[in-house]
């Protein structure tokens, strides 16, 4: 009789998260309210993901954050907004309120969130009156209404004159199902279905074995994922606003305004782009506050999900060591990188600055040799039109495949120019090379004891690949696999 296996069963693979139809126009639901009433917690609960930063600190959310949610079988776009506060327009709170007002103006439904435990405050009443004047449908949500006492406290929200409040606890998930039903009931009716056009049939990707023609890139369908990274106050949010042509992100002289990673959509001549603005990355030793640690984690996660990273540097300050650390992080994650020298209009001696940057990159960032450099002024818009074409060009390099025949002809010539070194008194016997993947370009070398290849010979091969096959500015991975000698044990 066969014995039952006592080993642990393999864990089930997580099911892929459903996505809305590509190109669909989704109804917009904006989550609004004064600070610290739980808007971001509710946003995360509706979208089913921890997208927005949540902390026990008022005013964590500054920029609008968007996500999609499937509510009762209907896809919607949910917008988390900054807390509504009465402040002068030129202050940070005033700029945050202007951003929230813009989200409310474009919403099909506004969720006005109040704190049931704190009761109805004069600020709640003030903004309830303001919402009534906007002419948008409003659904009143009484959050933090846990248990019977919380439900009784939620009834105070009737005094706002916005109809019956929906009592929920976003943190504990209470009442969320009822809220989803209320949201879908109040949205405009869905448009009539249109017969889809005949789908385009894509030809299978051939193997890159032809001597002359490399296989096309294996980039999956979807928007180009582009992350904007850099130190605080380098002009990342200003650049995003300039690319969008609108004041989407809150900007100002204060460093560290952006706290979360904010994704927005735009398009260029070649297709859609998902553009992510991230929080500034400071030196690790200076990061102490828990909220900043969360911001940095969100920035790194956005970088991991990107295909190309735009590293924004303040040209008036030059390339700092922290800028190089960020570039090395981009290289370790295997992403394409474009260096943007912002505030170029404020640079006095441009030729000297450009040469200083080139020298610093040559000596401190040799693993990203040939990295594209674009000089711009995000404030005035000068040079910004060159950025997206440079991104598209770098993306093509990042996706490039080299034909196996051409690759091995180059490999043979490289071995003749510089023979493999001796390791433990025996010379490495490298036989052939193949490209195993793109994104970034990854090559595999086969040979006897190839896995013992010294680092300097690896760099020799990587630099040769970069120069011979035009692979500037992208990480190149070189893997080695040894072949077993059948007589080694005799």
Automatic annotation (TrEMBL):
> Which stretches make up the EngA-type G domain?
27-191, 224-399
Keywords of the record: GTP-binding, Nucleotide-binding, Repeat, Ribosome biogenesis
Q: Gene3D superfamilies under this entry? A: 3.30.300.20, P-loop containing nucleotide triphosphate hydrolases
Q: Which GO terms describe its biological process?
A: ribosome biogenesis
Provide the binding site for GTP 2: 230-237, 277-281, 342-345
Record-listed GTP 1 binding positions: 33-40, 80-84, 143-146
Which residue ranges are recorded for the region named Disordered?
1-23, 187-221
One MF term in GO for this entry?
Answer: GTP binding
**Which InterPro entries does UniProt cross-reference here?**
G_ENGA, GTP-bd, GTPase_Der, KH_dom-like, KH_dom-like_a/b, P-loop_NTPase, Small_GTP-bd
Checking Pfam families in the record gives: KH_dom-like (PF14714), MMR_HSR1 (PF01926)
**Which N-terminal stretch is annotated as signal sequence?**
none
Family (UniProt): Belongs to the TRAFAC class TrmE-Era-EngA-EngB-Septin-like GTPase superfamily. EngA (Der) GTPase family.
How does this protein assemble? Associates with the 50S ribosomal subunit.
Record function comment: GTPase that plays an essential role in the late steps of ribosome biogenesis.
Q: Any idea what this protein is called?
A: GTPase Der
In its UniProt entry, the species of origin is given as Endobacter medicaginis
Q: What is the lineage of its organism?
A: Bacteria, Pseudomonadati, Pseudomonadota, Alphaproteobacteria, Acetobacterales
